[in-house]
Amino acid sequence: MTRKPIDSAALEKVVGGAYLPGTDGHDTTIGTNEADSIVLGAGNDYAEGRGGNDYIDAGAGHDEVYGDAGDDAIFAGAGNDFAAGGAGNDYIEGNDGDDVILGEAGTDALTGGAGNDIVVGGDGADNLQGDAGDDTLIGGFSDRAADSAFGGEGNDTFSWSPGGGNDYFDGGNGRDALTISGMTMAQLQQGLQVYTPGLQLLENSAGGVSFVNSQGQPQSFSGQLTIGGETLRFDNVERLQVG
Hints:
Blueprint lengths: L12 E2 L4 E3 L6 E3 L6 E3 L6 E3 L6 E3 L6 E3 L6 E3 L6 E3 L6 E3 L6 E3 L6 E3 L6 E3 L6 E3 L6 E3 L9 E3 L6 E4 L7 E3 L6 E4 L4 H7 E3 L5 E4 L4 E5 L8 E7 L2 E8 L1 E4 L1
């Protein structure tokens, strides 16, 4: 997402290492290089923490929040929000709504909350939580860091590719999938180990594999996939898709 240009006439608050309450309108708030506390009300708000270890509570509404440099804590609140942590070890909660959450550089802890969220860790060993909803989780395609992702309730997807690191994905409840780019079906079958016993492999022409139990019913499974010295471990997955 491209940041919006800042209109000085619309800029309501500029803070520096201080507590700032917002309003129930559509606020535009820019922090400084100090540790700012930005607490906004209802409304479709825009906030930048800039430098420093910032605390940002965006409140209800469809908000756009950037933590920027520093170890930031961001609470997006209810609504369809966009939140990006920037450089630093950030903590971000999306809450209710269909959110897009980017951890970016650093060791981040990211939670989508209820809703169909997109949660992307970026560079660093990140922890990703989808929670309720049909979520898309991405640890980081080329960071080679060990990410952990948990889908929670809903039909979730975790995207991975060689170079993404020794990641772990637990799909949780629902019909969850692993989407793997940069890998052929032959490589998938060569590197795949399935821990769940008594299953029959199914392969389709679209480049996916799944398993059924002895009654022919779709079955989630656990296992690991190894390629090029990296291992992706997983639990509670119903389908693997390559491409």
